[in-house]
Amino acid sequence: MEVSSSTNSGASQIDVLKKAIDTQSEQALKILEDTNKQTQETVSQADVARKTGVGSNLNING
Question: Residue 38 sits in which domain range?
Answer without folding.
Answer: 1-43
